[in-house]
Amino acid sequence: MIERDLVIVGGGPGGMAAAISAYENGIKDILLLERDQYLGGILNQCIHTGFGLNYFKEVLTGPEYADRFIKKVQGIPGIEISLKSFVVHLTKDKVLTYLRPGMVKTVKARCLIMATGCREKTREMVHIAGTRPAGVFSAGLAQKLVNIEGLLPGKEVVIVGSGDIGLIMARRFTLEGAKVKAVIEIQDKTRGLMRNVVQCVTDFDIPLYFKHKILKIFGRDRVEGISVAKVDDEMNKIQGTEFTIDCDTVLISVGLIPENELIEMAGLELDRKTNSPVSKEVNKTSMPGLFVCGNAFKVYDLADSVSKDSESAGRLAAEYLKH
After folding, report:
1. Would you say the pTM of this structure is higher than 0.90?
2. Are 49 and 58 in contact (CB under 8 A)?
3. Which end of the chain is flanked by fewer CB atoms within 10 Å, N or C?
4. Is the pLDDT of residue 75 over 90?
5. Which of these, 225, 222, 224, 219, lies nearest to 244 by C-alpha position?
6. How far apart are CA 188 and CA 58, in angstroms?
7. In terms of domains, do 193 and 143 share one?
8. What is the mean pLDDT of residues 66-95?
9. Same domain for 225 and 260?
């Protein structure tokens, strides 16, 4: 088993910013593990603009924003990048087991930063009744299918929830020639940024229903439609307000959850409501020498905020190793 000064799990904007910050603060032995075949994380499929306004004072797309960090990380000799490296186990002694094509590797970290990002909430988490036909996607999966794979998942779309990815995909589907029938939001205000509501929904005349909820999905082999009703302040259906929308695709965009199963495996304390580590300070956990940054610590609206938060984690890791 090899031992490294610092191991960072996740090669998205958080992991890369943490690696650069740690190196600049004196750590010269860094291993960066990324499960995908490219660095950049979720930014690779976010081809829309709106990144970098705070951090670089420029308007960039997701891949452009990621590229600036990728070039910097690749140019630092003290950072070893290991792609296609899927971490499957973590112990309380900071011993990581990860899979690479054709091999299983183990590494012991003197210090560890988890930059594992977050995952999307699913249909099951919002209790939508009905059958389980083809055509129900999370908004992020639909984004990957359209932007990376070049596939259009459907022609008539309803979006459940008004998270940023859902709002952006309303515009993306419209630009690709699909018809977005509605965005359904159970709360009285959007979950996403106001600029995304204006630029992606209002500007494209897409109906946005606040204080409404989806009751049921219809269809056997493929989605055929949904039923929707207005809700009161207690989120209960108001009788007599029900109506149906014909569609062949339903996108779920009802929020994100920090991806922290690995640190839970190591015995760290997690907040059951948010799935974030319980800590009195940002980036820290209940285990000395194990830090969490970016969307794995808490869900941010902007990648710029993730980068700044992760730089702080890199500094904390350097201070921990020095002392």
Report:
1. yes
2. no
3. C
4. yes
5. 225
6. 32
7. yes
8. 96
9. no
Residue 116 token pair: 């594992």
Instruction: Note down the domain range covering 164.
Output: 122-252
* CA-based end-to-end distance of the chain: 24
Question: Concatenated DSSP letters for 46-80?
Answer: --SEEESTTTTSS-EEHHHHHHHHHHHHHT-TTEE
Total tally of structural domains belonging to the chain: 2
* Phi, psi at 156, each rounded to 5°: -125, 115
Query: What amino acid is encoded at 311 in this protein?
Result: E
Q: Is the dihedral of CA 58, 62, 64, 65 positive or negative?
A: positive
H or E element in which residue 304 lies: helix 303-322
**Residue 143 CB partners (closer than 8 Å, separation 6+):** 45, 46, 165, 168, 169, 172
End residue of a domain, out of 214, 230, 252:
252
pLDDT at 289 (0 to 100) = 93
Q: Among 235, 252, 269, which residue terminates a domain?
A: 252
Segment 266-291, tens digit of pLDDT: 999 898 888 999 888 888 898 999 99
285: tokens are 């956990």
CATH number (domain holding residue 248) = 3.50.50.60
Q: Is 90 exceeded by the pLDDT of residue 65?
A: yes
DSSP, res 13: H
Distance from chain centroid for Cα 71: 22
Query: How does residue 127 score in pLDDT terms, banded at 50, 70 and 90?
Result: confident
The residues, any chain, with a CB within 8 Å of residue 303's CB and separated by 6 or more, are 13, 43, 51, 52, 55, 62, 65
Same domain, 247 and 127: yes
Distance CA 86, CA 36 (A): 8
Using a pLDDT cut of 90, give the percent of the chain over it. Answer: 89
249, with CB counted inside 10 A (0-12, 13-18, 19+), is buried
Strands (E), 161-312: 179-185, 208-210, 212-218, 225-230, 243-246, 249-252, 256-258, 290-292
129 and 107 share one domain: no
Cβ partners under 8 Å of residue 272, min gap 6: none
